[in-house]
Design goal:
- It is a single chain.
- By secondary structure, this protein is α/β, with parallel strands linked by helices.
- The protein folds into four domains: 130 residues, LON domain-like (Archaeosine Trna-guanine Transglycosylase, Chain: A, domain 4, Roll); 178 residues, P-loop containing nucleotide triphosphate hydrolases (Rossmann fold); 120 residues, Helicase, Ruva Protein, domain 3; 200 residues, Ribosomal Protein S5, domain 2, CATH 3.30.230.
- It contains 33 helices and 25 strands.
- The strands form six sheets. Strands 19-20-18-17-21-24-25 form a seven-stranded mixed sheet. Strands 1-3-4-5-6 form a five-stranded mixed beta barrel. It has a five-stranded parallel sheet with strand order 8-9-12-7-13, sandwiched between helices.
- The structure holds adenosine-5'-triphosphate.
- The site of adenosine-5'-triphosphate (ATP) has 20 residues, from helix 14, helix 19 and helix 21.
- Adenosine-5'-triphosphate binds next to helix 14, helix 19 and helix 21.
Length: 857
């Protein structure tokens, strides 16, 4: 580097101590400055100095412990490199430090350390006399020979690399133009060398010595390269091209792992193997033509790209995804409808309608293998087995199963992926799922489609439209992939709790199958056939260790859970199993302490003991002095011990002990619910107060009910507190719908509000075993409402006896299981008069009640 010849370095130099690397003249190095001494040097010399001289510093390799860089002279290396600071960058993360870019000028020797605090300053003597050798003719014979030798080796080394890479061709040019005496320093900093070797070169003040030391290093590098090429002979040509060379780091290093030709060669050697494999995979992946084109283009780019470029990793990830995607890989369907029926029946009790529809679907698939659509959507309360049926469908078909949870997804790139221009971009869930299952015809369960959100990042439901449309999804384009993927072989099944929040366009693409909640008897069967065995297995228990009688299960169903599905029922069994597991484990521990006279001897004798004597309740087993007798019986005492006092009491009759209360039936996404409507009246100015978070439609129903009652007050002899037929005269009415924190809306509470107010104004009690639902009109007609099955099941769960439903909902009763129908009386009402007659004992006659009309006489 001839800059060294024109600059005379100052006689005193501040010293920068480097711990990880050695700077040689003619090379550039990026180094982190974080020790106190070095930081101080940067601050007071480099950042404050204005002259060129003030940017010249001495870079000394420090072989001592970095923590004690203030140690005096003996620990410092005697020879260093005077360097020009080209760039200083400060940063506070992760701790305050500077990054310094320095370029080496020439060697110097420390004559005397002048001070060592706050940073060392030394009197120095310049060693390299570069201006002496400006041409080959200045070398003596031996030196000339050595320099020629070194030059040849350098050329040989460079030629082993791919000349089409700009950085390599630049180095080739530099070899010709640089003064020969600077070659040892420059080449040593470029090829693979250890710090120790670099230090030796730095110490080699004499040119001859320096040449002699550098040549073996070059030869070693060349041999290494040859060996590497031999091992990769078949793809020699490719390899030569694959060796990338980064100009920016050509002659410097910052990290603890110094940059060198050999490093590149080794890393890229490994990497080029990978790239070769990747290329091979692309060729054999049988991807469609369009995708193949994109991949070929990308791999070409990748080969030319330096590894350090962020895009390198991006492109590589992309290509890896492309080769992993199952473009043409699929499983063969096992379509045996009889087997499917058996499997579905074995896995799931009840759900007849759902199973029937699923079997129909599978049967059609059997007849027409490339069936397009429809997309099934199971809608029902939580825990009724929607997800689990989806899994069974995959099992029956012998297909891979993948569940995509859509709850809370509010970014459309979750479905469609991010464009590759984004940092951290990745494919959407559909493509990810395909990559995971590795076949192009899995069963995808889109769980909770009703809980898709919307945000500024777009509407994921809109992105799903393309996925689910059988006419379009053969060319689904994920933004990340940017080429079409055929989704037509994927079997999509969606689940939701309600259709109300599914966008109409999405709903239109799916065939909705309602999955209603279970009745008590079904839950009982599901519990004993599926849930209990599953929980026993999960807790490592056997039926010989625990016995849960049907009465206990019934108690759990009625008094510890109130749900349409069976999920919390399953959790309760889990809690019981855990408690029993503790007892069993304790029992095993205390077995040897067992009182022989009372304990049954061996398995055989156990089997002969009658059921009653064999089982022992858990509260007895709780006695720590004795191990429990098996099986542990879960009776109602044990249940109370484990699950605590019952959570739900049968409270219906208590709450209906005064006028102004009626039971309505509501539908929620969690299934049907019974709902108490309460009314009271007080002196006032005819105002109606409604509480319980009611929606507009429900408020309107309340106004309708009042109006109808006021207009029929005379007919039914309804009076206010002072006996007037004008019900709102000097009277305020308050209507409350308990569970006040839950928002309620819909017209179906109309009949309940009328009944409740009729009870209030007539002073008569509504029958405590009656629940009702129905919309009302101003003329007193009762209109049909939805969710009848769930509502009826809720009434049945709550132990009510009569259900009043609109006449036009009679057809919905067909869906009600027979045993529920047998337990309940159904009353079809066409008008409010019929509702009132059914809701009050002895009917709601139009006759005057003597005690109420006497004031008029
Ligand atoms: N009919 C049934 N027969 C056997 N097991 C059932 C039945 N219904 C539900 N289960 C069991 O109940 C549990 C909950 O079912 P699953 O997770 O499929 O409910 P889900 O309807 O998908 O609920 P969500 O809407 O909350 O996702 C599972 O362990 C499942 O095996």
């Amino acid at each position: 580097m001839d800059s060294g010849s024109s600059i005379q370095i100052p006689g005193r130099l501040p010293l920068l101590l480097t711990h990880e690397s050695v700077l040689l003249p003619g090379s550039t190095m990026r180094t982190a400055v974080d020790t106190p001494g070095n930081m101080q040097l940067v601050r007071s010399r480099l950042l404050k100095g204005t002259s060129l001289k003030s940017t010249i510093i001495g870079v000394i390799p420090n072989t001592s412990d970095p923590a004690s860089d203030s140690e005096p002279l003996p620990a410092l290396h005697r020879i260093g490199t005077a360097a020009l600071a080209i760039q200083v960058v400060g940063s506070n993360w992760p701790k305050p430090h500077y990054t310094l870019l320095v370029t080496g000028l020439c060697r110097f020797q420390i004559v005397q350390l002048l001070k060592d605090k706050p940073f060392p300053v030394a009197e120095v003597q310049q060693l390299d006399r570069l201006e002496q050798f400006t041409s080959k003719s200045d070398f003596n014979e031996e030196l000339g020979e050595l320099s020629e030798q070194l030059y040849k080796y350098a050329v040989q080394l460079v030629e082993m690399l791919d000349m089409s890479i700009p950085a390599v061709s630049k180095l080739r040019r530099l070899l010709d133009s640089l003064p020969r005496e600077s070659l040892p320093d420059i080449l040593t900093s470029v090829i693979r060398t250890t710090n120790k070797e670099k230090l030796q070169i730095l110490d080699a003040v004499g040119l001859e010595e320096r040449f002699k030391m550098t040549i073996p290093l070059l030869v070693r590098q060349i041999e290494g390269l040859k060996l590497l090429q031999k091992t990769r002979k078949p793809k020699q040509d490719d390899d030569r091209k694959l060796v990338a060379f980064r100009p920016s780091r050509k002659i410097g290093q910052m990290s603890s792992r110094p940059f060198s030709l050999d490093n590149i060669e080794e890393e890229e050697g490994e990497d080029s193997d990978d790239i070769f494999m990747l290329e091979k995979k692309i060729k054999t992946s049988s991807m469609p033509e369009q995708a193949l084109k994109v991949c070929t283009k990308e791999i070409k780019r990748l080969k030319k790209m330096p590894q350090s470029m962020p895009e390198y990793a991006l492109t590589r990830n992309y290509l890896e995804l492309m080769v992993e995607l199952p473009w043409n890989k699929s499983t063969t369907d096992r379509l045996d409808i009889r087997a499917a029926r058996i499997l579905l029946d074995n896995d799931h009790y009840a759900m007849e309608k759902l199973k029937k529809r699923v079997l129909e679907y599978l049967a059609v698939r059997q007849l027409k293998s490339n069936l397009k659509g429809p997309i099934l959507c199971f809608v029902g309360p939580p825990g009724v087995g929607k997800t689990s049926v989806g899994r069974s469908v995959a099992k029956t078909l012998g297909r891979e199963f993948y569940r995509i949870a859509l709850g809370g997804v509010c970014d459309q790139s979750d479905i469609r992926g991010h464009r590759r221009t984004y940092v951290g971009s990745m494919p959407g869930r559909i493509i990810n799922g395909l990559r995971t299952v590795g076949v192009n015809n899995p069963v995808f369960l889109l769980d909770e489609v009703d809980k898709l959100g919307k945000s500024l990042q777009g509407d994921p439901a809109a992105a799903l439209l393309e996925v689910l449309d059988p006419e379009q999804n053969h060319s689904f384009t994920d933004h990340y992939l940017n080429v079409a993927f055929d989704l037509s072989q994927v079997l999509f099944i969606a689940t939701a709790n309600t259709t109300a929040t599914i966008s109409p366009a999405l709903l239109d693409r799916m065939e909705v199958i309602q999955v209603p909640g279970y009745i008590q008897e079904e839950k009982l069967e599901i519990a004993h056939r599926h849930l209990i065995p599953k929980q026993l297995e999960q807790h490592g228990l056997t039926p010989q260790q625990i016995q849960i009688p049907q009465e206990t299960t019934l108690q759990i169903i009625n008094r510890y859970t109130r749900e349409a599905g069976v999920r919390s029922l399953e959790r309760k069994f889990g809690a019981i199993c855990r408690a029993v597991a503790v007892k069993v484990a304790e029992g095993a521990h205390k077995e040897n302490k067992l009182d022989c006279s009372e304990a049954p001897e061996g398995e055989e004798s156990k089997e002969h003991i009658s059921e009653d004597t064999k089982a022992e309740s858990i509260h007895k087993a709780a006695d720590l002095a004795l191990p429990p007798e098996m099986p542990i019986l879960i009776d109602h005492h044990a249940l109370k011990d484990i699950l605590g006092p019952p959570m739900y009491e049968v409270e219906v009759s208590e709450r209906l002990s005064q006028p102004g209360v009626a039971i309505g039936l509501a539908w929620t996404p969690l299934g049907g619910e019974i709902m108490f409507v309460e009314a009271s009246r007080m002196d006032g100015e005819g105002q109606l107060t409604l509480t319980g978070q009611l929606g507009d439609v429900m408020k309107e129903s309340a106004h309708l009910a009042i109006s109808w009652l006021r207009s029929n007050a005379k007919k039914y002899y309804l009076t206010n507190a002072s006996g007037s037929f004008d019900l709102l005269d000097n009277t305020d009415i308050h209507l409350h719908f308990p569970a006040g924190a839950v928002t309620k809306d819909g017209p179906s509470a109309g009949v309940t509000i009328v009944t409740c107010l009729a009870s209030l104004f007539s002073g008569r009690l509504v029958r405590s075993d009656v629940a009702m639902t129905g919309e009302i009109t101003l003329r007193g007609l009762v209109l049909p409402v939805g969710g009848i099955k769930d509502k009826v099941l809720a009434a049945h769960r709550a132990g009510l006896k009569t259900v009043i439903i609109p006449k036009r909902n009679e057809k919905d009763l067909e869906e009600i299981p027979i045993n529920v129908k047998e337990d309940l009386n159904f009353f079809m009402a066409g008008c409010l008069e019929e509702v009132l007659n059914a809701a009050f004992d002895g009917g709601f006659s139009a006759k005057p009640r003597l005690d109420l009309v006497n004031s008029k006489l």
